């Protein structure tokens, strides 16, 4: 893999920041999954969320099977930080960038697995649990669904995520093996 070429390509995208790291650095926690189960209405409703993604241990094993990972962030300003609908409306742009970055890695022959934001919203009605996902190549489970403490990773690498009251910071992690 040509990391210099990749960094050049990444610099052309509207990323706030990015950081390469070893998957071994990740902190996995059942407490993150507990938040999914207790506070997220998407729990148990789609293929991108628990329990469909497997246990935290299964998710950890999938992540650690890759040699490297790339954390990317984008930022978007919204008029009102308390308007969740406005915040969520900015998500598709981040997802599109995540697809672009994953495509850059695949173009260099890497095998990849991407985790991104929130729950999947590709289909109006998810097939979970009655049939397989219609778009497994486009659907990204969310970072938190895997029990990853993304704020720990961001803090250790100097990635900003509390940029201001009306700013939304989105995270994705793309695991890859050259």
Please name the defining characteristics of this protein.
single chain, 178 residues, alpha+beta
Textual characterization of the structure:
This protein is of the alpha+beta class and 178 residues long. It has helices spanning 3-10, 30-39, 56-64, 84-89, 91-107, 150-156; strands spanning 17-21, 68-77, 111-115, 167-177.
pLDDT averaged over residues: 92
The global form is globular
H/E topology pattern: HEHHEHHEHE
Radius of gyration: 16 Å
Topology:
Blueprint: H1 3-10, E1 17-21, H2 30-39, H3 56-64, E2 68-77, H4 84-89, H5 91-107, E3 111-115, H6 150-156, E4 167-177
Antiparallel strand pairs: 1-2, 2-4, 3-4
Summarize the structure.
The chain is α+β, with helices and mostly antiparallel strands. The chain has helices spanning about 5-10, 30-40, 55-65, 85-90, 90-105, 150-155; strands spanning about 15-20, 70-75, 110-115, 165-175. It has a four-stranded antiparallel sheet with strand order 1-2-4-3, with helices on one face.
